[in-house]
């Protein structure tokens, strides 16, 4: 896990993979987080649903398995896929699956610092329901913002306590040694893109 000056990023093993509905297999590369945290920005998700922004957004970045590496895949039109999930605040009760990760944030407080996470189960850090999602063809949300990403935005969300959210929003420093806040890209115009969903309703979304 590294503080790269923009977010906290966890490197993932190539054995972790995702298969899209069309059968395309994607290899996991890394996961990272986007949040707000500054006084005027209480929410930091990069996607909105019905105009609503969430407090944090998780991205699990993958590349198309037919390419030899992420560096090759990131340059081609069908190269990348990102699984995204929102975080919602659950009052009082802490998410114990996040305890290990949050405790290690102190070890990467400064830009460039790296630490090793052990015994981390990525599935436990994602929503319980991975089957219902929104999907569209879009771009990376960080430079170079290339438009070659198949997005899968989960309908279900991760629940963290207010204390856990505060720690994630306030534990890291950027290149200027200032608290790393608002590390998200503003919502972009659709530009005639079609956003699809593989479900009609999702009654457990705010469970």
From TrEMBL:
SUPFAM superfamilies given for it?
Answer: Carbonic anhydrase
Q: Which reaction does it catalyse?
A: hydrogencarbonate + H(+) = CO2 + H2O
Q: Enzyme class, one word?
A: lyase
Residue ranges spanning the membrane: these are none
> What's a single GO MF annotation on this record?
zinc ion binding
What GO cellular-component annotations does this UniProt entry give?
A: extracellular space
Superkingdom of this protein's organism: Eukaryota
Task: Give the subcellular location.
Answer: Secreted
Cofactor(s) essential for the protein: Zn(2+)
Q: Which InterPro entries match?
A: CA_dom (IPR001148), CA_dom_sf (IPR036398), Carbonic_anhydrase_a-class (IPR023561), Carbonic_anhydrase_a-class_CS (IPR018338)
**Pfam families of this UniProt entry?**
Carb_anhydrase
> Is Secreted there in the keyword field?
yes
Q: What is its EC number?
A: 4.2.1.1
Q: What does this protein do?
A: Reversible hydration of carbon dioxide. Its role in saliva is unknown.
PANTHER family found in the cross-reference section: CARBONIC ANHYDRASE, CARBONIC ANHYDRASE 6
Family assignment from sequence similarity: Belongs to the alpha-carbonic anhydrase family.
Q: What is this protein called?
A: Carbonic anhydrase
UniProt source species:
Sciurus carolinensis (Eastern gray squirrel)
